[in-house]
Amino acid sequence: MNTDRALAPGARIGIVGGGQLGRMLALAAARLGLSCHIFTPGADEPAIEVAARATLAAYDDQQALARFADSVDVVTYEFENIPAATAEFLQKLKPVRPSPRVLALTQDRLVEKDFVAKLGIEVAPYAQVDDPGALARAVARIGRPSILKTRRFGYDGKGQALLKEGSDLAVAFRSLGGTPSILEGFVPFSAEVSVVAARGSDGEFLAWDVGENLHDNHILDTTTVPANISDDLRHRAHDMARRIAEALDYVGVLAVEMFVVDGPDGQKLLVNEIAPRVHNSGHWTLDGAVTSQFEQHIRAVCGFPLGSTRAHGPVVMRNLIGDDVENWRELLRQPGACLHLYGKSEARPGRKMGHVTFLKT
Amino acid sequence: MNTDRALAPGARIGIVGGGQLGRMLALAAARLGLSCHIFTPGADEPAIEVAARATLAAYDDQQALARFADSVDVVTYEFENIPAATAEFLQKLKPVRPSPRVLALTQDRLVEKDFVAKLGIEVAPYAQVDDPGALARAVARIGRPSILKTRRFGYDGKGQALLKEGSDLAVAFRSLGGTPSILEGFVPFSAEVSVVAARGSDGEFLAWDVGENLHDNHILDTTTVPANISDDLRHRAHDMARRIAEALDYVGVLAVEMFVVDGPDGQKLLVNEIAPRVHNSGHWTLDGAVTSQFEQHIRAVCGFPLGSTRAHGPVVMRNLIGDDVENWRELLRQPGACLHLYGKSEARPGRKMGHVTFLKT
């Protein structure tokens, strides 16, 4: 159902997924006088206790999904790995934003790369790998080092295998479960950046300043804004994100991760990945910009006007992974540090427990 | 019970009162990974749906109060007119911050003015009025125009009567219900300002920049920061707030409302009122400062270090009273406007429905 109901304060937003992104979306919705209903298979998820309502049920529980849809005015999601069938089922009952089509596209690395490449936007060399034979042919074409990735359900480095000279291709393919994959050429990038942006239901497009991302063990460690890139590159990064959002007829916040690559003709940008949701590299906007990515996403999916993306000044956002969170008291003491904790009780290694934004002016 | 338990993220905060201040406190607590339990006599209050838990019970329901206290690690309140007996009952079970002593003091205009005056801080001329005879004597001393106010339970202009030349004193006294009152001399002020500040459990004191307040029909209309006063006056305003907070052994956020009065020796400040809680004139800090008054109050009552009160730049906060809220879509469109709605369904005249902060840089 895509009929555009005019939403207003008091409206109810359904959020599929109950993690920290859902929590921060629900908190942003509350600022605007909106209430949220979380749908998640997991109990004890961070979003539940800040939302007016929660349904704990499996993604294929159609009775629960129907009741959930019935109770809300619009549905959105906080992560992209929900089953396409769930989104399509919900869309028959209530508007789902961004659309299930976007979800389906970004759930498959191959489909996503084909889509970006067809827009004339450069991506890393890639090849479809459905079996060990295809992997051998892909390696012959793309070379090594290269990275074998499952087409679906990878995140934070999960579902990836690095292929170096001498790596056993069959072992690598089996290590990912033998599922449909793609081989990506290794890109000798000088920096990783991301554009977090929003597109409204009326087509308005607004991006925050480009952030520069550092990863640690495949998990985002810090985002520094502004990224140390030229104005020209910044402009091109924004333009790429805009073209992607427009081609998807996107409504909501999205993030586009890019590699900065030095070349004979100066620096260029390759698109690495599209995230059809609020994104970790946009967390700094909670404290460092006039409008946060979370509020902006809520505004967009409700059909409200978008807010200013102006930054207050330079910032660094640092993720608190696992035990990092034990430094919370020390972080609270640092001038200009804005601490966010997600209310997770157990600090497992690799688990995102919170983040801190350092406002540098 | 005043034993200082070391709280940490995961702690549970009890908030007495369920209005918009409680709502914004609960949202700030959630950012820090804390959960809130709201105690309020009213159903359908703004704070309820953003808190992990709510108890709807009367302030004298000791069973409900005991269960509430049992479920939390620390108790605070979002408005000052809760019965002193309620605060004292809770204090026997869990730490209550700020202390019930502060609550008792600020609930009585006469006791509060005596307290401020004894600190050597100037207040408007005032006199105790317990009966019509005392009112006549007070008017003879203080003159007219002057304002008769009930000692207890007044807010937003309620419980006040303006005495002009020719006003019938007996009628005025009866109009306030014949309850113990005070007469306050009319102060020919050039501006109303307020200091919103926090004192930590370790005695650390931090204030935000002074705001200049305009009222409309006795209800705060706008707060402009910084106030248009000299650096010397700003320094004196902060110093008065600090002395008041220290004399109260205050823990949490408080607001001190002051009059700026022009005199032969330049401008001076008179303290008008102390609010022992987060305050409407500090709402701008949600969008305009590194740390909001709501997070700061939560930090203080949990015994956490206080955060930076640095402002991002000049701001104007405007309350949305009654029908004002119907302009929400227009407000969302204005660049630099940060809209907050409190989730109240009915926009009655005089009701605070939300506020908007305009970031001017």
Task: Describe it.
With 361 residues, chain A is α+β, with helices and mostly antiparallel strands. The first copy, chain A, has three domains: 12-96, Rossmann fold, CATH 3.40.50.20; 125-185, Dna Ligase, domain 1 (2-Layer Sandwich); 191-359, ATP-grasp fold, B domain (D-amino Acid Aminotransferase, Chain A, domain 1). The first copy, chain A, is 28% helix and 29% strand. Chain A is built from eleven helices and 17 strands. Chain A has helices at 20-31, 62-71, 84-91, 100-106, 109-118, 132-142, 169-175, 231-247, 285-288, 293-302, 328-333, and strands at residues 12-16, 35-40, 53-56, 74-77, 126-129, 146-150, 160-163, 181-185, 191-199, 205-207, 211-216, 219-225, 252-263, 266-275, 315-321, 337-341, 352-359. In chain A, the strands form three sheets. In chain A, strands 9, 10, 11, 12, 13, 14, 15, 16 and 17 form a nine-stranded antiparallel sheet that branches. Chain A is globular and about 60 Å long. The A-B interface holds A 8-10, 23, 27, 30-35, 49-52, 287, 290-291, 299, 304-305, 307-308, 310, 312-313, 325, 328-329, 332-333, 335-345, 354, 359 and B 8-10, 23, 27, 30-35, 49-50, 52, 287, 290-291, 299, 304-305, 307-308, 310, 312-313, 325, 328-329, 332-333, 335-345, 354, 359.
